[in-house]
Amino acid sequence: MHHDDIGPSHHQRTGRREWLAIAGVLLISAIFQLARLEEQGWGNPYYAATVRSMLLNRDLWFFASFDPAGWVSVDKPPFGFWVQSLSARLFGFHGWALLLPQALATIGSVALIWRLVRDRFGPVAGVLSALVLALTPITVATGRTNTIDPLLVLVLLIAVWALQRAIDRSALGWLLLSGAMIGLGFLTKMLQAYLVLPAWAASWVLADAMRSWRRRTAALVAAGLVLVVVSASWLVIVDHTPASERPYVGSSSGNSAIELAIGYNGLQRLLGDRDDTSGAPSPGRILSAFGAIETGSPGPLRLLNPFLAAQASWLLVFAIVGGMCAWRVAGPWLALPLGRAQAALVLWGGWLLTAIAFFSVAAQFHRYYLVMLGPPIAALTGIGAVALWTLYRRPGVAGWVLPGTVGACTAIAGVIVARVPGISAAVLPVILIIGAIGTVLLIAGRLVARAGHRSTLASLGCAAAVIALAIGPAIWSSWSVTHPVDSTLPAAGPGTSLVPSLGGSSDDANAPSFALDRISPPDPATLAFLNRNHRTERFPLATLNAMSAAPYIIYEAMPVAALGGFVGQDPIVSPPRLRQMIERGDVRFVLLPDQQRVSMLVTATGVLGRLRGEDAGAAATDPQVLVNLFQSPLATMISKACERVPDAEWRSPDAAPALGLGALDVLYDCRPDLPRNAP
C-alpha cells in the first residue's frame, strides 16, 4: 500500500470548503484565546514583574531580571519574556499586553498544525488536527496566561515545518533552521524543548531526503551543532559575565545559568530534588510538593488519572490507535528509507511517545506542561481519523477498529466527566448517548448489505462520534473563557484550580483571598511610609520571596530585593552578608510573612490534608515543606535582629482583606536607631 491511501496533498490546492473549514476552526481558537482575556489581570505576578523590570534598560532586558535593581533573574531563559516585553512596548505595560503573545501563539499553532498535517495527509486530516488542538483544554488555558509554554509550542512547530521542507527539498539549510528553532525553544523553556529531539532526529535519518546514509548523518550532526550553539549562547554569556555585573541566576544553587538548565529546570524535573537531605525547602522540593497535588503518583496510567486526564488525554487513546493504523495504511512497515508520510508519522508518534514516557515517570512538573502533548495528539488524531476511515471502508478485521476506538474513547470521556460532580449530571448522559449512537451506527454500517445504506449509516456514525468526542474538551476549554484561569498554576475545566485550597474559601466576606495569581496594588499607606522613610538605600524595601515583591515592581517599578528569589530559598545572600548590606545602608525595611499567620492559613485551608495525600490519592508529601516556604535563615535573622514596625504605622486599617498573600506580611525595621518619620 502507498501513502496516497491517506491523502498526500502537498501538491493539492486548498479548496473553498477547506478554507471555510479552517477559517471556522481558527475562529473557534480565536474566541477561546482572546474572549474576555482582560479578565485574566496581570497573569502570573512573578512573570509580570519580570517584564516590568526588563522594560527599564537593556541589561535588565537581556538578563531577564525580576527586579529593577538587577538583584535576581527570573528562573527561566529570556526569549519568551523578550516577546512579552516587545508586546508591552507596542501596546503599553498592562496585563492584556503580556497575555496577548501567548494567545496569538496558540492560534498560530492551530493554523500551523493544519498546514503541517495537510501537506502530508490531506485536507481532512489537517482540519481535524487543527480542531483537536484548538479544543485541547490545557492548550486553551495556558494560552490565556503569561506562562511561556505556548510560545515554546509554536517555536517547536516552526521547527517541524522547517524539517518537513528539509525532507521535501533535501536541503541542509532548512534542516539547520529546524535545529536553530529547537535551540530557540531551549531559550524559551530549557530542556522541555528537547522532548521533541528523539523524534526529530529519527524522522530525518529515516526519511529519503538524502539518498546517502552518510550525508543524512552528517547533515544531522551539523544541525545538532547549530542546535547546541543556539541553546548554549545565552547560558554561556550569563555565566561568563561577572556576578557583580548581572543579577543572581534565580532558582540556581550556584548562580549559574548552565546549572539552572541542568538542575532545577532539567534533571530535577525528571528525578526530583534528591541532593538536599536536610529537609530545607529548596525550590525543587517546593515544586515537588505542589507537583504531588497537581499530577498524582508516577505510573504507566498517570496521564489518565483524575489530575491530568481532563487536561490533554481525552483523545490520547484515539491518537495512539489512529497513529498505528496510519502507519499500516501509509506503506510497508519496515521499508527504508521512509516516505514523507511515514517520516511524519515517526515525528508525531515519537514526539508523543517521548512525552508520554516523561510525564509518566517525572518527579516534578505542573499540569500546564502537558501542552507538549497537544500537537502530537492533535496531529495523530487527525491523521488517524482518516486512516481509520480508510480501513473501515475495506473488508477485513481492521475495519472494526474505528467503531471500537470510538466506543473506547467515549467511555474514557465518560470517566473523565464523571469525576466532576457539579457538571457530570448534565454532560455525562449526553456524551454517552451520542457516543453510543455513533458506535452503533458505525457497527451497523459494516453489517448492512446495501452500499447506499452502508454509506449513510457510516457518515452519520462519524458525525455522532465527532460530536461526542468533542463535547468534553469543548466544555473544559470554554470554562477557561467563562472563569479566570489560575495564571500561576494553569489548568482547564471545573474543579481543577488549586486556588481554593490555598485560601479564599472562608464564609467570612471580609476574609482575605490568598490566590497566588491574584495581585492588587500596594497599600497606599505602605507606599507613603516607604517614601517618607526612604533615604539613600539601594532598596527602599526587601522581601523574602518574589511574590511579596511583585506588586511593588508591577505597579511602582520599585527596586525591591527579593532576598531569597522566587520561593525565598535561593542562596543569594547569607545572613552575615545581609547584615553588612544593612550596615552599609543598602536596605532598611524588610517585609516578612508572619509565621503564626502562615500556620493558621495552611491549617485553615486544608492544604496540609492535601499534601498528606488525603485528596483523591495525591502523593504523600511532608506538609512542613509548604509551611517552610515562608521560612529561611534570613527570616530567622531578620525577625531576631530587626524591630517589628507596628501595623498602624505602615498599613491601612482596612487593607488586609484586599492584599491577598500580602495580608500575611509584617514589616521590620533593621535600622531602628534611625528615626521613622510619622505621617
Q: Could you tell me the number of beta strands?
A: 5
| Binned strand content | under 5%
N-to-C span: 84 Å
Q: Radius of gyration in whole Å, from Cα?
A: 27 Å
Mean pLDDT across all residues, rounded? Answer: 88
Alpha-beta classification: mainly alpha
Q: Which spans of ≥5 residues are poorly predicted at pLDDT below 50? A: 1-5, 275-279, 499-514, 607-623
Number of domains: 2
Main beta sheet: 5 strands, mixed
Q: Going across the major beta sheet, what is the strand order?
A: 2-1-3-5-4
Which overall shape is indicated by the principal axes computed on the Cα atoms?
elongated
Helix content: 55-70%
> So how many helices?
28
Report what the structure shows.
- The protein is mainly alpha-helical and 679 residues long.
- It has two domains: 3-482, no CATH class; 524-669, no CATH class.
- Helix content is 59%, strand content 3%.
- The protein has 28 helices and five strands.
- It has helices spanning 16-34, 45-54, 58-63, 79-91, 95-121, 123-135, 137-143, 149-169, 172-189, 197-206, 213-239, 257-271, 283-295, 309-312, 316-330, 340-361, 374-392, 401-418, 421-447, 451-482, 524-533, 546-556, 575-584, 595-604, 607-611, 624-628, 633-641, 647-650, and strands at 541-543, 560-562, 589-593, 643-644, 665-669.
- A five-stranded mixed beta sheet has the order 2-1-3-5-4, with helices on both faces.
- Strand 1, helix 22 and strand 2 form a beta-alpha-beta unit.
- The model is unreliable at 1-5, 275-279, 499-514 and 607-623 (pLDDT under 50).
